[in-house]
Amino acid sequence: MSLSEHDVRHVAMLARLALTDDEVEAMRTDLNSILGHIDDIQRLDLGDVPPMAHAIKVVNVTRPDVVTPSFPQHVAVMNAPQSENGAFLIPQIVGSGDDA
Amino acid sequence: MSDLNLASATASAIRGAIARKELSAVEVASAMLARIDEIEPAVHAFNQVTPELALAAAERIDTLVAEGADLPPLAGVPAAFKDNMNLVGTRTTCSSRILAGFESPYDCTAVARLMDAGVIPLGKCNMDEFAFGSSGESSATGPAKNPWDLGRVPGGSSAGSAAAVAAGMATVTLGSDTGGSIRQPGSLTGTVALKPTYGRVSRYGCVAFASSLDQIGPFSRTVEDNARALSAICGKDPRDATSAERQSEDFVAAALDGDVTGMRIGIVRDLLELEGVTPEVRQSVLDAAARFEAMGAVIGDVDLPTSKYGLSAYYIIGPAEASSNLARFDGIRYGHRAENPIDVLDLYMRSRAEGFGPEAKRRIMLGTYALSAGYYDAYYGQAQKARTVIASEFSAAFERFDVLLTPTSPQVAWKFGEKADPLTMYLADIYTIPVNLAGNCAINVPCGFSADNGEGRLPIGLQIIGDYFAEATVFRAAAAIERDLALDLRSPLVIG
Question: Among B155, B195, B407, B425, which residue is least crowded by beta carbons within 10 Å?
Answer without folding.
Answer: B425
